[in-house]
Amino acid sequence: MGATLGGVLAACAPLIVGGAMVGGTLMYTDRRTSGAQIEDQAIELKASRRIAELTGERVHVNVTSYNRLVLLTGEALTEADRATAGEAASRVENVRSVVNELAVMGHSSLTVRSNDSILSGKVKASLVDAKDLMANAFKVVTERGTVYLMGRVTEREANRAADIARSVSGVQKVVRVLEVISEAELAQIDPARRAAIPAAPPASTAR
To answer: Is the distance from CB of 142 to CB of 120 less than 8 angstroms?
Structure first.
């Protein structure tokens, strides 16, 4: 089953939120710049701290940032706490957009969280096994059996990965939080793909 969260990012590249995504084994290369990777780490730390300062133990939150798009997963005891967490994350420097998937409910147990970690590992392994995908291009986040897929991918990769993630035993739902790029844009990121893009036909010389 897939899920759609709607448009979240007003960037030049369209964003898909709701389905599934993939990466493969052609190159183990992150599709973010090194600067973006460092920035994402800083965003995760700052957002986690700010949410904890404002909500204390009322919110159990996992903050995941990919190319400055922030995904919040976990549980909040009240709708007000959920909203506070989302607002706190959105105010962190350099954040482009926030997808707030916090559920209003009691905190998940250690057993549930352990099972989620196992599921994430299974999904990642399945993506690696798919020889037509670049697994390292994606982040996999699992919360209470729901798998969230993040990254910069083409439409083909997004569809392929969705199918793979859904096929993993124990996965209840797959949600795509993706920045979709064209094959030409991917070729600029990954030079190995340039050869796969057909060359433009030569201009006609007829008179």
So the answer is: yes
List, in sequence order, every residue forming a beta bridge with 176; answer none if it has no partner: 149
Q: How far is CA 202 from CA 187, 188, 194, 205, in A?
A: 21, 22, 18, 9
Asked if 146 and 172 touch (Cβ cutoff 8 Å), the reply is yes
Cα gap 142→123, rounded to integer Å? 9
Kindly report the pTM of this predicted structure.
0.79
160-203 pLDDT tens trace: 999 999 999 999 999 999 999 988 888 887 765 544 444 444 44
Q: By C-alpha distance, which of 169, 113, 166, 168 is closest to 142?
A: 113
User: CA–CA separation, 100 vs 111, rounded Å?
Assistant: 23
